[in-house]
Amino acid sequence: MKVRTRFAPSPTGYMHIGNLRTALYAYLFAKKNNGDFILRIEDTDRARFVPDAVDFIKRTLKAANIVADEGPGIGGAYGPYVQSERMEIYKKYAMELIEKGAAYPCFCDEKKESAANEDKKFGGYNRACRDIPPEEAKARMETEPFVVRQKMPLTGETSYFDVLHGAISFNNEELEDQILLKRDGMPTYNFANVIDDHLMEVTHIIRGAEFITSTPKHVLLYEALGWETPAFIHLAPVMGKADDGSVSKLSKRHGATSFEDLVNMGYLPEAIVNYVALLGWNPKNSTQEIFSMDELIAEFSLEGLSKSNSVFDYEKLNWMNGEYLKAMTDAEFSKLAKPFAGDLGELEDNWAKISALLKTRISKFNEIPEEIAFLREMPPFDANLYVNKRNKVTPDFAREILPGAIELLEAIPDKDWENDKLYERLNAFITEKGYKKGAALWPVRISVSGKAATPGGATEILSILGKAKSLERMKNSLENLG
Question: 325: Cβ–Cβ under 8 A, 6 or more apart, which residues?
Fold first, then answer.
C-alpha cells in the first residue's frame, strides 16, 4: 500500500509554527516512504474565512521547501482539493448515512434547543429529532430546513489506536450527535475531512493532539460507511516560554509565531524548517542537529516522535540560524543580508567588506541595523569604553597612544588605505613603541567606533570608514579624552 499523507489547513488565519510542523512531518513521512503528500484546503468555515490565507499557506509551504504532489493549482487524480468545490460529494454521503440509520435530519432551531437543554446533556443538543420516524423525516426534508446529525451509539465505547499514544477509548454516552451537514449544505470539519481522507486514499493522518477527542466520531463515520480507518498520529503541542519562565501553548504573546514573521525577522527558511523539525522529533542514534531537507527525509521516522510537549526556544533557533549563516559563502550572505541593512549611503561601496564581518557576528538578519549603526554615525562619547582590565587599558593609556597612531595614519597614502596595509603599519608602530598588540589596538578601535563590541577589529573598521572620516573620529575622541 502506497503511503499517502495530507496537510489540510483551514484558511481562517495564518500558518503558525504548529501548522508548519504538522505539514513538515506529514511531508517527511510521505517522502521517506516514497509516498505522496497532499495539500487540501478545508474552507468550510465561511464565517472565519480569511481571503488571502490560502495564498499565504501556499507561499509558506513553497518557502519552506515542502512540495505537495497533489493540491490546488497542482492537480491530481482525487481533486478538487478545495472543500467548497466538493459540496455534492458531501451531500451524497450525508444522505447515505441517513439511509443507513447512522445519521438523521434535525429540524430544530439550534439556538432554542441548546438554551432549553440547560443541563448540557448530549453535548448541548437534546436529540429531539433523533427518533422521528424515517418516513416522516423524509417528508419533512422536502419542505423544511434541516441539518444532518450523526447518530451516536448510546452505550459502550469507541476505541482507536494512535501510533504515538497507543490505544484510546471514549464512552459513547459522552459523544454529541454532531452536525455533519449544515442548513446551507456546507459540511462541518469532522464530516468533510473523513470523506476526503477516504476518497483521497490517505493512509496516515498526522495532526495536532487537539483532535484526539474528535477522532472517535471520525472512527464511527468510517465504520458506518464501511471504510477502513487510516493510521492516526496526534502530535503533542508546541509550547512557548514567557519572560517569567512560565510555559503555555505557543501564541503571539511569546513573539513571532508564524513562519513568515520569522522570515521577516531575518531567519533563514531552511534554518526555521530544521529547527521546527526538532520540536517533538529526534533522529534515532544520532546527536546531529543541522539537517538539510534531504537529510531530514532520510532520518525521519514516527518512532522518533515525542509524546511530550515541546518548547519553542528562541535562543536555540538563534544558534541554529547563526550556524546556517556561517556556512554561507560571503557572496550568498551579502546578497540576502543587504535588504535588512537599509540605506547604506556612502557605505554602499564597502558593503562587501561590512557583510563579510557581519556573517559570523549575527544570529539573524534583523540585527544588522544595530550592528552597523556606528558606521553611519559615531555614538556619544563614553570614556569608560577605554577601560579594559584584561589588557590593562585605561583612558590615560589611550591619551598616550592615540596621538602617535593618528600621526602614523595621517602619513599613509590614500591608495594604501586598506585593511592589510593598515594592520602592517600599525603593527610596526606598536612593536616599535613596545606596546602589547591587544592593549594598543583597543583604544584605536574605540576611538573610531565608539562601541565596546564591533563586527571587525580596528583596521577593518578604519578601512571601511575611509581615511578622512577615521581620522576625524580619532581626533574628536582624543579631544574628548583630554
Answer: 268, 333, 359, 360, 362, 363
* Positive or negative: CA dihedral 7, 12, 15, 16: negative
Residue ranges with strand state E in 219-344: 231-235, 238-241, 247-249, 310-312
Pair 289, 299: CB distance under 8 Å = no
- Give the list of residues 6+ apart from residue 258 with CB closer than 8 angstroms, or none: 14, 15, 16, 17, 60
Residue showing cell 454521503: 93
Rounded CA-CA distance 37/206 in Å is 11
Residues 6+ apart with CB under 8 A from 345: 376
Other CB atoms within 10 A of residue 282 CB = 16
Work out whether strand 179-181 and strand 147-150 pair parallel, antiparallel, or are unpaired.
Answer: antiparallel
CA 80, CA 71: separation in Å to the nearest integer?
8
CB 333 within 8 A of CB 339: no
How far is CA 75 from its chain centroid?
A: 26
C-alpha torsion sign, points 25, 283, 306, 232: positive
| Beta-strand runs (E) in 281-401 | 310-312
Low-confidence ranges of the chain (pLDDT < 50): 114-119
| Phi, psi of 149, deg, nearest 5 | -110, 145
Q: Which of 92, 252, 335, 437 is catalytic?
A: 252
**388, exposed or middle or buried, with CB in 10 Å at 0-12, 13-18, 19+?**
middle
DSSP structural state of residue 108: S
Decide if 32 is catalytic.
no
DSSP conformation class of 434: T
CA angle at residue 177 from 43 to 158, to 5 degrees? 100
